[in-house]
Amino acid sequence: MNYQLFETEITKGDHKSLHYSLDKFEGELDKGLDLSKYEISMTALGTHIKDTFFHIHHLDRDGDYLAEDVLDAYKINVDFPVIYFTRRFPYTDNFKCGFHLDTFKKFKSSFFRDTVKIIKLFKGHFIDVFIAGDFTKDGEFIDDSINIEIIPFQLNHQEIITILSKNFEIDKDYIMRDAFLYYDIGQFAWHIKIKLYKDKKPVVKFYRTSPYNPYLKFRYYDHSTRP
């Protein structure tokens, strides 16, 4: 069963978008590859979204990343371990990749120190943390902004809300609080993204799946074990 992923800004902006999971790509995006072990999705609806974006994400990892033939097929010209990528369709020059902190350190980004500080705020409350940045068509890192994606222990929602409220200018915390009023872990999976910019304040977004939690089969999502 496919699902949707709702994205809502909880700082002062009005961004909302909707991502759709897919069984397979069609047309030009079907490269004849077996993508069954990956999550594939499209984003086509949302405020300020004029174009379609497609995503390939390796969620159920055990020291594994996107295969090189997948990166090559979609012209993701980088030479580091990639957790996921996002591209506009039809293609434009730039794309976004997700990776881990040890990879990010090698980019010598101006955001690295602040990224580490933010991750430490959530210590003990997350399954994993992804960093995501933009790249040119030739794989050069663009150091204008950075995404920090916190994949939390799914039952630690009150702790996460408190951390966000104390450290960021959260304008709509009721969106998260209302979502968890009668929360059962099977209802939806969720995570947060903190986007840092050089010239403006951080943006925080809340993501939740619908109509169910598709990730309970993955390690740690059912809260029974911890990394």
Structure described in brief:
This protein is α+β, with helices and mostly antiparallel strands.
3D structure, described in words:
The structure is a single chain. With 227 residues, this protein is an alpha+beta fold. It has one domain. Helix content is 17%, strand content 33%. It has 5 helices and 10 strands. It has helices spanning 68-73, 101-105, 112-121, 157-167, 173-179, and strands at 4-9, 16-22, 39-46, 52-57, 84-89, 95-99, 126-135, 141-152, 190-197, 203-210. It has a 10-stranded antiparallel barrel with strand order 1-2-3-4-5-6-7-8-9-10. It is globular. It starts with a strand and ends in a 17-residue tail after the last strand.
Q: What secondary-structure arrangement, pairings included, does this model have?
A:
Elements: E1 4-9, E2 16-22, E3 39-46, E4 52-57, H1 68-73, E5 84-89, E6 95-99, H2 101-105, H3 112-121, E7 126-135, E8 141-152, H4 157-167, H5 173-179, E9 190-197, E10 203-210
Antiparallel strand pairs: 1-2, 1-10, 2-3, 3-4, 4-5, 5-6, 6-7, 7-8, 8-9, 9-10
The rough form would be described as: globular
State the share of residues found in helices, binned by percent.
10-25%
Order of helices and strands: EEEEHEEHHEEHHEE
What is the tally of helical segments? 5
Portion of residues in beta strands equals 25-35%
**How many distinct domains?**
1
Q: Could you name the ranges where pLDDT drops below 50 across 5 or more consecutive residues?
A: none
**What's the total count of β strands?**
10
